Amino acid sequence: MTLLSIKYTVSRLSATVIGRRIKFRVARDCKRPTDGRIFIQCTYQAKCTVSKKPKTWHGRKWYLSDHMMEDEIVKTAYAAFKACVEHEVMEGFLYNSERVFNPHVNFRALLEVNKMEIYRTEP
Description:
Number of helices: 3
Strand content: 25-35%
Order of helices and strands: HEEEEEHEEH
Distance between the termini: 60 Å
């Protein structure tokens, strides 16, 4: 499929969650704008959890195969949407006004905390 046909397919999608509209960006990798890999990326407006200022956010890029069919494009857009929503859910879940599941924490720090598992004692 061509960039234009992928954009057409994606333009027929709509994605909304809890009143927030998520848009889909379709573009080529900027390192090779004429023949680079095509990707889908979610974008949305939301306040920054730190600064509280409104901002346009961009999810990760979901690269498409050169041989991708329409079905795979729609399902990849859904996966991008789902990941975007899960990211916001993690940021919005608080305990004493602090994020419990911060998606921005480096994975190496998580590996250290991972050793702190807790278990129930047997009755």
